[in-house]
Specification:
By secondary structure, this protein is α+β, with helices and mostly antiparallel strands. 65% of the residues lie in helices and 19% in strands. The chain folds into two domains: 1-60; 61-100, no CATH class. Strands 1-2-3 form a three-stranded antiparallel β-sheet.
Length: 100
């Protein structure tokens, strides 16, 4: 993975060669890369929030069983399966939350 500075330099060179000065290109590149980093951070925070909701939901279930099965995961409550066969535990929890 390239550093932020390498990405800025490459983007600035590409932009400057076409439309603007080196300083303008660097400024433009910095703003684009910083915005991309902000969006990535927001996606991570959103996924952490969804994981917290999933854990809160699991914590409230009475007698929940979570099992890894050959085709993925299964969540059951009182021997009733709410989801089965999802490839990730996150997908399984989300499917069970929709049913329950």
């Amino acid at each position: 993975m390239r550093t932020r500075e390498e990405q800025i330099s490459d983007l600035a060179n590409d932009v400057a060669a076409v439309v603007c000065s080196d300083a303008e290109g660097i400024s433009l590149a910095q703003s684009h890369i910083l915005e991309a980093e902000r969006r990535a951070e927001q996606r991570v925070r959103a996924e952490i929030g969804r994981d917290s909701e999933r854990l809160d939901w699991l914590e409230k279930l009475p007698l929940a069983d979570i099992h890894r099965i050959g085709s993925g995961w299964r969540i059951g409550v009182n021997n009733i399966s709410f989801s089965e066969g999802k490839m990730t535990l996150r997908e399984t929890i989300d499917a069970a939350r929709e049913v329950g």
